[in-house]
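Mods, move this if it's the wrong board.
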Amino acid sequence: MKKHIITIDLGGTKILTALIDENANIVARDKVPTDMSKGHEYLVELITGTVKSVLEQSSLKEDDIRAIAMGVPGTVNPITGIIGNAPNLGIENYNIKEAVEKNFNIPVLIENDVNLAALGIKYFEFKNDVNNMLVVFVGTGIGGALIFNNALFRGSTYFAGEIGHMRIDDQGNLASGKKGSTSFETLASRTGIVNLIKKDIKDGQDSIITKLAGKKGIKSKVLATAVAEKDKVAVKRVKEACDIIGTVLGSIVTLTNIDTIVLGGGVVEAMGDYMKSNIEKAFRKAVLKEPGEACKIVVTELGDDAPLYGGLSLAEEFLS
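Not the wrong board. Structure tokens:
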């Protein structure tokens, strides 16, 4: 029986691919920058190249691989393989499952990237210790995934968990209608934080961010360094984002009564303790007492590997 799988974490900035054996050991990896400048076909070429790379590293052949599982940052239909909308990739209504399968004699499975991470976190980090869980990844955007009664909740049209698109005001309170509101990720993702910092600097506020970033841009590690150095602009904007995240999560937990919130993504990995502490303070102010007392907030220990392990669970679900 084929026991190895290949998992691809297709992100807005990188493609991370791993080959995993039957004992959940990652035996080979490859990572390349995401490049959409040449369109869908070139993206598939990049993905194909990473798959071939991990096969070569492990000396395995296609016949040894049970499935290729891929996480995509957007709305996906795991049955048809169609990406409905992946705004960070600029993709709409594209069947990436069929496109990748043309290059291999291996079944391709697709899932939302945070859903895939949630499967990895649930079954390889917490196992039976968590029944109802919200996973929140803060990075280029903000993605979410829901585990209800030990199972991934995808919703009626596979859209469940897309918390980054919730409409809120600038304090993180849920907003009715679009007037005076914006999306959650516009304010609190790394992109949102960076846009506000750039505006502050343009308006004449002093900051070490420009020097730290150089030509590479303001990435999560740059933000973390600036916060550690107590840069006023960075501290203000990251703290505001934490307040908004905590407030939104308080409303979600009041509604769902889940037992665990798991934080992850590049921004959280870079400043885990700082963000968790500030998010939790805002969360405790926003959530109702009873569901709040029943819910703990943690930072995933799997980091970037969470969706990689999730591929094992996805293969088990769809190919068993």
